[in-house]
Amino acid sequence: MGHRVATLNARLRRTRAGAFYATLRACFFAGDTPVAQHSVYFPDAFLAQMREAMPSTLSFDEFIAACQRPLRRSIRINTLKISVADFLALTAPYGWLLTPIPWCDEGFWIERNDEDALPLGSTAEHLSGLFYIQEASSMLPVAALFAR
Q1: H runs (alpha helix) in the chain
Q2: In what order do the strands lie in the sheet with 74-77?
Q3: Which residues form the SAM-dependent MTase RsmB/NOP-type domain (predicted)?
Q4: Looking at the domain that runs over 2-37+71-145, which CATH code has it been given?
Q5: pLDDT per position as a tens digit, 23-42
Q6: pTM of the full structure
Q7: Rounded to a whole number, what is the distance in angstroms from the first to the last CA of the chain?
Q8: What's the pLDDT score for residue 93?
Q9: Which of 19, 38, 40, 125 would be a feasible disulfide site paired with 130, CB 3.0-4.6 Å?
């Protein structure tokens, strides 16, 4: 199965979609620095409530700056289709840096060097349902609900 997935990924990298995503990314990023940034909008009422609720020992400016930073990308392995161990073995040759999410056994933060060539959502593993792109914070409620 691993060879077929790698072959499909190679084909996807050569498609027009792969070239489109690489061009789009190049338009917005120069190296690792965003060229076009979008700031998160906060309604004035929310900002006023947060200023009032935030302890004086914390910096409101640091809170706003933290809200502007992008979230770490994360995935959840679909254990109905593949075990975590098999998924890690399958993706090991890709050089993906997968860091376990402490509250979700099948969740990982992911860092990839090949995002320009093939977006994560276009990989054969994602298209075949082996993993979902899901924010780590969204994995927490389920973990809490089914905690032993």
Answers
A1: 2-13, 16-28, 44-53, 60-68, 84-91, 124-127, 136-145
A2: 97-101, 104-111, 74-77, 131-133
A3: 63-148
A4: 3.40.50.150
A5: 444 444 444 444 444 577 88
A6: 0.61
A7: 35
A8: 93
A9: 125
